[in-house]
C-alpha cells in the first residue's frame, strides 16, 4: 500500500513538473486574450470549433514555446532566485525529455490548428513560437536592453490568433489588440526587472535597469504607461467598443499610472513588484471589459 501511495505521489509530482514547464498562468492569460479576440470577431456566439479547438491549439503551442524557453534558459535559471526552482534548473526533468515534450505539444497544437481551424492561424501561431522561443530567448534577450521591446510582438499575438481562428483573416481591429499588449509589455516586464535587478546582473542578462540604471528604467515605465493610456482609448475612438469599455479602461489606466508614478518617485523596491502584479491584473481587466462591452452594447442599443 505504501509503495502504491508513493508511486501515485511521484506521478503527481511528475505531472505538475511538466505542467510548470508550460508556464500555465502565462498561457491562461494568453488564452483569455485569444478568447476575447474570438468574441470581438463574432457578431454573436463564437462558433464552437474555434472556441474549443482554436484555444486548445493555441494553448498547446504556447505551452511548447514556454517549455523550449525553459530548456534554453536553464543555465541562467540556476543563477536567478526567481527561476532557480524551475523543473529543468532543479533537475526534476531532463533536457532531452523536456525537448521531446515541447516538440510533441508543438506538433499536436499545430495539427489541431491546421486541420480543424485554418492555415493562417496555424502559421501565425508557429511564427509566434519561433519569435519567442528562438529569436527572443536565444538572441534578443542577451543582445540588447531593448530585448523586451523588440521581442514583445511575439507575446502580443494571442488576440490576433483568436481573431483569425474565427474569421480566417487579419484585420485592423485585431492588430489594435496586438498593439495594446505590445505597448503594455515593457512597463510590465521592466517593473519586474527592477525588482529582480541583482538576478539579471548575476546572470549577465542586459535588462534595462542593469544596463541604463533604475532611474532611467522608471522614466521609461512612466512614458510607456502614458502611451498605453492613449493606445487603449483607440477601441472606443474607432467604435470597436463602447462606453463600458472606455470608462472602465480609463479607471484602470489611472490606477496603473498611480502605481508607476509612485514607483518613479520612490526608492522602495516593493513598489516595483506591486506595479508588476497590478500590470497583470490590468491586462485581464482590460480584456474582460472588451468582452463585457461587446456583448452588453447591443443590449443597450435595443432598449
Structure description:
The structure is a single chain. The protein is an all-alpha fold and 303 residues long. The chain has two domains: 1-170, Tetracycline Repressor, domain 2, CATH 1.10.357.140; 171-303. Helix content is 82%, strand content 0%. It has 15 helices and no strands. It has helices spanning 2-21, 24-41, 48-72, 74-77, 95-117, 119-143, 147-155, 158-167, 172-195, 197-202, 208-212, 214-231, 234-237, 243-265, 270-302. Helix 7 packs across helix 9 (172-195) and helix 9 packs antiparallel against helix 15 (270-302). The longest helix is centred in the last third of the chain and has 33 residues, at 270-302. The protein is flat. It starts with a helix and ends with a helix.
What keywords describe this structure?
single chain, about 300 residues, mainly alpha, 2 domains, disordered N terminus
Q: Briefly, what is this?
A:
By secondary structure, the protein is an all-alpha fold. Helix content is 82%, strand content 0%. The radius of gyration is 20 Å and the shape is flat.
CATH fold-level topology of the largest domain: Tetracycline Repressor, domain 2
Written as H for each helix and E for each strand, in order along the chain, the element string is: HHHHHHHHHHHHHHH
Could you say which overall geometry the principal axes of the C-alpha atoms support? flat
Indicate the low-confidence ranges by residue numbers.
2-10
Number of helices: 15
